[in-house]
Amino acid sequence: MSSGDVVIDLGAAEPWRAPDAPPPARRRWRVRWVAAVVLGLVAGLLPGAAAPGVPSLLHVEIGVQRVVMGGGRMFVTRYTGEGPHRLETYDTGSGRWLWGADFGDGQQQVAGGDASVVLIDTAFAGRALAFTQVQARDARTGAELWQRAAASVDGLAGGVVLLQDLTSFRQVDVDGGAPPTGLENRIVAVDARTGEQVWELVAPRGSQISFERDAGKQAYAVRSMAVLDPGGALRVHDLRTGAVVRTIQLAWSGNVGMFVLGDRRDLPQPAGARGGQVAVSASGGLRYQVYDLTSGRLVWQIDAEQSAWIFGCAPGWWCTGGNQGMTGYDAATGAAVWRSEGGEATLGADGGRLVLGGVGADGLAVPGVRIVDTGTGATTRRLERWRPVFGFGDRLTVFWREEGRPATVVGQLEARTGRVTVLGRTETGEGEPMCDNDARSVACVIAGDLTLWRAPQTRGGGVAS
User: What UniProt keywords are attached to this protein's entry (predicted)?
Assistant: First the structure.
């Protein structure tokens, strides 16, 4: 057993009860307290593990398809076997049931939520665009607030929801991924509570829109938006008003395939790439060009392999990733400074550490997580049996399976130390886990079965990341 392989049996989770009969207060607290202390002592003696804390907060056994967290709530999509899917909402700190509602025709996923609203996006599969819609519900009560047809959710920024208008797209365009450069790209911002339009933006043909996601929150949280047009004008927009707050002229010409902004110096966030830079590629091209945002001049360029993409992966580094592995480039010079093993994906970064995980040909995680020092490129830690969970959230969830049993052990990895905090185990089958988390708890769905665990705490009282 390696130092990263830790098994701590927390026992069976409590059974889920119907929403109209919320779980009663737990009894036998003295027995559970003693058990938790014993488990904590055992975990403390095992290398690479932290004490798992209390047992699970909630266990939902049947038909769970998706879980999304936001605003202190956990939004669970469930299929009951009859009738439409259901949306059930729980408090992430206690597992307490809050409210539930039936989904309408075609509604199968929650696109995002915060303390004010939860957004429901109609699935595209097998449906004409004319019948797609976004629905907003009150996150506290579940009451429907508004609906908008022919739209999908791009992001949520405070009191504004950013919607992609789909009226000018063909079905094949949407199914194929990002909007093609030959079509008009229209973003509509609406009030999160009323659905009333606040502003709209129509990007010129040949342009692309880039959303800066908040790395410390869920995937739908957006904190800035920029548009790069074929003439090289890069415009940054205010999310509340849609107004242009900054314009940079780049020495770029031609249709834009994609662009990625480097870190902003005025915002705290996990460091990656170089603040004051932008990486651009042409439509259908495999060459990335990096520009300085102050002068607009080209700093360096590289030719990337097919299926590669570029992203800010570490302090002072841009990285490309693709079928043949990943390469790190010095943001100032473009010199290749680091090369990863093939079949790996970037899972996260924390200061001077980069976390990488193995990906199989089927796109699923394979055993093996390693931590790389971004100053030297050296591997500082390997966790041979842990697999990464690809999902939402800013903390890395990992898991491994017990041999010969349908049991899955779930934990959270701290990139700075390589320490894994074991959350618990389930015996629900061998499906690929889908997890989400917030500051209070971690939820994982495995083969239709959901377990909610309390998030690990650091010694300083904060949440381990």
Answer: Membrane, Transmembrane, Transmembrane helix
